[in-house]
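Box 4.2: Ligand-aware structure prediction
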Amino acid sequence: MNRRSFLAVMALGLLVSAAVPTFAANNGAQTTASYAQIADAYSFPLGDIEITALSDGTVPQDLHKLLTGASQTEVDGLLDRSFLANPVEASINVYLLRDGERRILVDTGSGSLFGPGFGGKLRDSLASVGVKPEDITDILITHVHTDHTGGLIENGKAAFVNATVHVGAPDLDFFLDPANAQRTGYDRRYFDEAEKTIGVLAKAGKVKTFADNETILPGIVASFHPGHTPGSAFFTVSNKGQSIVFIGDIIHVESVQFPKPAITIVYDVNPDQAAAVREKVFPGFANTRQLIAAPHLQFPGVGHIRAEGNGSYTWHPVEYRNRAGAAGQ
Ligand SMILES: [Zn+2]
């Protein structure tokens, strides 16, 4: 997702939000039904690590404007099968990993860059699980787009003052050089927003780049899957024989791109390559029953992919659990 297309659908979002008071706006004396949520976190164990999905909010997406490589009729048909209609709502999910030593974020949401009411809820979501911004030791960035790096900065300064930011070298190189906007024709706004977010931290010496297949922290391996951006990374986290792969933005719209992985989105720097990544990695995830987590699938965005034949897939969110006890108990 990006700001350019987001603004295209912003008018609709503002109309909706103006008509629906939030819980906060009327001091709990709610008179109108609303989509404002109170629970913004979903935690589960992976070996000795506690993983928590944190909501940064949701934003409306006009798929008629955003999806490429499909007709509006085809898109509407796929949405209808999932009981949805255009526009749809995209989650912005951030993930927190906690073990005895570290508190690691995977991405940081959009911060203030999408404007009031759209994204930027990470700080509140973190507080809901008792974590302060200064507690964060490391931040893993799947790729340098506004809705993943926006939360790195608050009022022009580091939002997570003690954190080292880890990012793929190809994305940092690409997005911090505005000449690439001219060279590729990719929206200049991405480059400007990169400068204002991860660029500030790079100048302050808080950013560490990683290479393909590098172990960036104990039990965490990064791998590159370029297409959506030149340095789009997966993070494979392993602990006590279990693993989860944080796949970043190789998929945006579950009801469309799982059944038809060839359908692309305007946010892709290289759409053909982005589609090829899905076609390459989905079979393996399905065969190995790999647990995955994705920033824009519906919160918490954690689950499995099943192969349905003919290059088509379905998404199966994790079982919901809300009680004490570790896995298997
Ligand atoms: Zn994104």
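In the box above, the bound molecule is zinc ion. The longest helix spans residues 3-19.
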